[in-house]
Amino acid sequence: MEKLVFGYLALAILVSALLVVFSRNAVKAVLWSLVLFLHQAVLFLTLQAEFLAAIQIIVYAGAVLVLFLFVVYLINLREEITWPRFLSAYPLAFLAILFLLALSGAALSGFRPAPPKGILTAGALLAQGHTRILGEHLFREYVLAFEAAGVLLLVAVLGAVVLVRRIREEGR
Asked: Where in the cell is it found (predicted)?
């Protein structure tokens, strides 16, 4: 049953990713990416990574897609942009994809996973949970990087506010 669920999720993720790339309408592409993100969240749930599934839905399916929709509506695409000169490159691109898939298959044929090292073993994950271990690593070993990312995000938000304020003042 687990293989069947994984197969469905993998196929749905692959198909929705292809629909995002090949969709002619930008809004439909954003909606297909919503389908992609939701299936990824369910895949995280099947791996018992509830925290990652929640973050996937909150951050990507929530915030990032709303940002994408705002950008799509702000640039105001009225007609489809086509480049006919690239249409002749599809057979070459298809051959390149086949070559890369064959190369990936050859590279992964001898792959053996390494044994777990440190405290991140399967037993520890089941006993303590993903969220607890992630929090301990984040706030003990990577606290400087975590704080630096927070400061960078704060500076970006303040910069956006200053830019919007300048544009509004010049428009008056």
From this structure: Cell membrane
Q: Could you identify the residue written with the tokens 């630096």?
A: 148
Indicate whether 99 belongs to any domain.
Answer: no
Q: Which residue has the higher pLDDT, 93 or 106?
A: 106
pLDDT in tens, 100-158: 999 999 888 888 877 767 767 777 777 887 778 878 877 888 888 888 988 988 888 88
CA angle 19, 48, 52 (to 5 degrees): 55
- Among 122, 145, 120, smallest CA distance to 133 is for 120
> Does residue 60 belong to any structural domain of this protein?
yes
In terms of Cβ atoms closer than 10 Å to its own Cβ (0-12, 13-18, 19+), residue 107 is exposed
Residue 59, in any domain of the structure: yes
The DSSP string of 67-134 is HHHHHHHHHT--S----GGGGGGHHHHHHHHHHHHHHHHHHHTT--PPPP-TT--HHHHHHH-HHHHH
Backbone phi, then psi, for 78, in 5-degree steps? -95, -30
Q: What is the pLDDT of residues 77-87, one digit of tens each?
A: 555 556 566 56
DSSP 38-61: HHHHHHHHHTT-HHHHHHIIIIII
Q: What's the total number of domains in the chain? A: 1
